From TrEMBL:
<protein>
    <submittedName>
        <fullName>EVE domain-containing protein</fullName>
    </submittedName>
</protein>
<dbReference type="Pfam" id="PF01878">
    <property type="entry name" value="EVE"/>
</dbReference>
<dbReference type="InterPro" id="IPR002740">
    <property type="entry name" value="EVE_domain"/>
</dbReference>
<dbReference type="InterPro" id="IPR047197">
    <property type="entry name" value="THYN1-like_EVE"/>
</dbReference>
<dbReference type="InterPro" id="IPR052181">
    <property type="entry name" value="5hmC_binding"/>
</dbReference>
<feature type="domain" description="EVE">
    <location>
        <begin position="2"/>
        <end position="131"/>
    </location>
</feature>
<dbReference type="InterPro" id="IPR015947">
    <property type="entry name" value="PUA-like_sf"/>
</dbReference>
Amino acid sequence: MNYWLVKSEPDAYSWQEQIHNHIEPWTGVRNHQAKKNLQSMRNGDLAFFYHSNVGKEIVGIVKIVKEAYPDPTDPEHKWVCVDVETVCPVPNPVTLKQIKTDPTLQDIGLIKQSRLSVMSITSEHWAILCRLGQVPTKYQQNKEN
DNA sequence: GCCAACGTTGGC
DNA sequence: GCCAACGTTGGC
């Protein structure tokens, strides 16, 4: 399985709304590299939910439950979305500041490609971020895969 | 195909 | 509010 990070501005769609909705289509991605990443996601992959602009921290974990399909918010049907399901909150949200000061996280996409809204995360970085966020072990991996 | 102008994202 | 990074548009 693969690990990912998806960004949302909490003013537009927040983690609280994600908890409430439980399963939600991840729509509105309008960048080719992000689209490619969406298309590489497989059912059961896990993703960090990051609050951009306001908060600037990793606040939760979601699971991909429906692979890429045409984004209903795109009238031209040329962009895609996936469905994500709430897995758990990150008990101790990991801030961008923390990530920037951690020597083991310097080559993470969040820093190197700050404008990309859907990116992959290595399993090593995933483990480090889970530890920093104090994510319970049982949520760090999807046992179904 | 190049590049200037402009728009957007997102951090500071 | 500013700006860096990056993407898009359109003239040539």
